[in-house]
Protein 1
Amino acid sequence: MRIKYLGTAAAEGIPALFCDCDVCKKSMKLGGRNIRTRSQAIIDNTLLIDFPPDTYWHFIQNKLPMDEITNCLVTHSHQDHLYELDIYMRKKGFANFKEPRPALNFYTGKDGVKRINEVINSNNMSEAKAHLVKSGDVFNVQGYTVTALEASHAKESTPLVYIIEKDGKSVFYSNDTSEYFEKSWEILKNFGKPISLISLDCTEGDKHIEYIGHMNLERCIALREKLKTVGVADENTIFVLNHFSHNGGNATYDDFVKIAAEHNFLVSYDGMEIEI
Ligand SMILES: [Zn+2]
Ligand SMILES: [Zn+2]
Ligand SMILES: [Zn+2]
């Protein structure tokens, strides 16, 4: 199994569109891995995770086979993870294709389904389909077994995080969230085997935070220990920090990668690929 990070930023991107903060100015100047687009990933170049406004750029940049991709797991309905208006571009005429063509299937929580269906229904589309996912659901997508867990994030966005398994390998894609609710811990305990790669929300970098909804380095360190305690991580599990904001502490890639390395975390960047 191979995960590729296509975009690795929180909602604003780094640099943020209208921002003059030091992180944004420095990141723009440094370029390279310091430039982060809105979060999206792909498994084995076929199973998409999230559908942000930067999907088009990710398609160009990574030569994604978007005409062949038929499945997309969506974490939640915030615009940086679900830019549903672009689904319209799959309608016949905007996209040309030989019939019959399978629909592009989106799997997400209640609010995501509602938003996707608004686009599908108002444009009379058969080229996309929304599937409702609830916390605790285990379902098969294209030969991958997907386990959904409720995330601790803005409730109205019906947030989920996903464990994706195939051929004895697994990825836990865990943003946007802070520490999980008890019922999600129950699902993790029942999962009960070490995951190959765990990707954690580290929106706030090494800045100290109190609020619920995202994580920072300090929380990721504690969460890693708890994940080991319940048996879903061990010494072979690869931990990646992801989903960064310019408002976080030491938020440029070049600065944060050194700090994270001291704690044995990898730091995601746009285009990062890991074979597990
Ligand atoms: Zn986000
Ligand atoms: Zn900024
Ligand atoms: Zn969010």
Protein 2
Amino acid sequence: MTETWIILGATSSIARAFIRQEAANGSGFLLCGRDMDDIAATAADARLRGAPMAEAMAFDARQPDTFAPILDRAASLSGAVSVAVFVGSMPEQAAIDADPAMIAGVVTDSFTGPAQFLTAIAPMMETRGAGRVVGVGSVAGDRGRLGNYVYGASKAGFATYLSGLRNRLGRSGVHVMTVKPGPVDTAMTWGGPKQPLSTTPEVVARDIARGLAKRRNVIYTAGIWRLVMAVVRAIPEPIFKKMTF
Ligand SMILES: NC(=O)c1ccc[n+]([C@@H]2O[C@H](COP(=O)([O-])OP(=O)(O)OC[C@H]3O[C@@H](n4cnc5c(N)ncnc54)[C@H](OP(=O)(O)O)[C@@H]3O)[C@@H](O)[C@H]2O)c1
């Protein structure tokens, strides 16, 4: 059966790696995001790599009126329609501390915008009884810490949302997978200090494909982060609250 991936956040470095990989496997795409020139170039590249269709569509997590045209186009497609969410924003925590009004935007980009879109498309996926959802969260959502707790809170909210969506859509045969990357070498982390145990967008894309093939519910990528976060979550709060990482 033909599978068409709706990619939310198609300019993301991780999304690009995923698109290159899945295009070679013959998937089609609705590539959605804000920078239409950039996305048009990615669409052309995907078609060259083997995608039977790749269309660029406008999507802004902060503007819900951009959602309906994507939902309408998805409804017109035959076969399985899947959704992969790569949208997210991570301003410096210090900037948010200085301007609390920024919190609404961070939460909308990383959680409520994508959740609103997924909730709107869920009935179509249930009716078709096919398709997959990939939601990219972060290890930052596993425990709030000094350096990025608003971003982390957004990712925690998104992970909890995905858990519930998995519970709902699994009844119709739709697989929902939560992806928790550790640090990845992308635009989001460029210019910052070199992070330990960091990985590349290509490794994350490969791990997503492997997780989907095994119908995993939650994956960490690189895989070592599952162990690291088990240790981090086990640190008693009286000690954790004094740590400065
Ligand atoms: N890099 C890491 O270390 C790391 C670690 C864990 C999790 N993640 C997560 O991985 C995902 C992909 O990030 P990345 O590392 O590939 O970084 P990235 O290249 O900066 O990608 C972020 C994506 O989010 C999009 N976006 C932000 N706000 C948006 C909005 N309001 N509406 C629509 N799109 C919006 C960006 O679009 P524009 O190009 O239009 O800005 C871009 O496509 C994110 O969810 C991120 O939180 C990354």
